[in-house]
Amino acid sequence: MIKIVSDGKKLNKELEELETDYSKGNISKKEYFAHKRDIGQKMETLRVADHVRRMQGRLGSERSLDYWSDQEQEKKKLADEAEKEEMLRQYITNPDSIKGKEIPSREWFGKRAKIGLLAFIALAFIVGTSMGSMFITEPSETASVAMLVNDSAFPPVTANNTTTVTSNTTTTTDNTNTATNTQTTTTSTPTTTTTTTTQPTSNTPTSTNTPTSTNGTG
Amino acid sequence: MRKILPLILVVTIFMVVLVSGCITNEEKENNSNNYTQGDIFFQYPTSWGVAEVNSTDGVAAVGDPETVINGKPTTSVVIQKYNNTNNYNLQTAYSQNYASYFNNTGRVKVSEGNFTLNNAKVYEMVYTSSDSGIKKKYRAVWLQKGQNIYVILASAKVEDYDAQQSNFDMIINSFQAS
Questions:
Q1: Fewer CB within 10 Å: N-end or C-end of chain B?
Q2: For chain B, which residues make up each domain, given as ranges?
Q3: Residues of A in contact with B32 (CB under 8 A)
Q4: What is the pLDDT of residues B14-52, one digit of tens each?
Q5: Which residues of A touch B50 (CB under 8 A)?
Q6: Quick check: B169 and A217 CB within 8 A?
């Protein structure tokens, strides 16, 4: 049925084009009448075929081809609208709630999401910093216990006794005799050398704490 | 605003990560303290403390306060400066020092050797001794910095010596003198 309608419209269009060409003088009179005759025959054929179909399938229906084409389009339109209504009914549970309301655009959703993400990050930052500051412990700069180290890599100096011998020599001379008297005195002076121990020196070291993570420097 | 927003996001995340790295409850064994006095610098464990030096020609000392007995830490490291009046080189000074160090002294040599530390040759002597009244194990590292010869003497009780090697290494490897 749709094919007959489209052919009819096509033939009408061809006829109009033929009339236009003939009026402009693009075709001769002979060609004009020849084409017109062909188009007329085709249209008559279409009309007969349509009449036969109507007599076979549609009793009492004497409508034109255009009427039926419009009916088809109308049916299509109604079918589309019915499908839309069905989808609305199926996927939107409460269509009355959105009627009259302005549905937010995509852009608005994106902006809200960004603000929410920023707020979450800022909150995580604050909470993390607060919790971390609760656990932090400052390292002590100096030991709380006083310590003294006296180990040495050098061998200690050992003690010893020394004996010092001194001698005095006296020389006496006269006219008759010459005699030399020598007196020798021996003195013993014990000298003791003890292991020197240096007095504790007060060192004032500077110790700085660097909480650096060193992994196995040794 | 749209162009600045990603930048703000990146900066915020960066700040979060930066602060998280600074406030951590990491084990203290992985941290170190710095010792600086005069021309001497080295790092030592955070659990240790600076000690008073009573050693011959001693310039610095640190010790573990957990090991103190009668005011003296059994685990300690002392830095001594060799009195090089004869202008010996490092090897000669080292050899001279230990020529009769173990002769009838009660000290027992465990090992000795040399290695390279900071592109310089150093000498090491390991021995045991009871000079302090407690049997301890000593590790003496001899090194030369310029015209000066330094001895890093690390010691601990014999049973604690092996466990303290990482702490001794921290001090020895980080030692600097100008």
A1: N
A2: 29-177
A3: 210, 212, 214, 217
A4: 777 776 666 555 444 457 999 999 889 999 999 999 999
A5: 142-143, 147, 205, 207
A6: yes
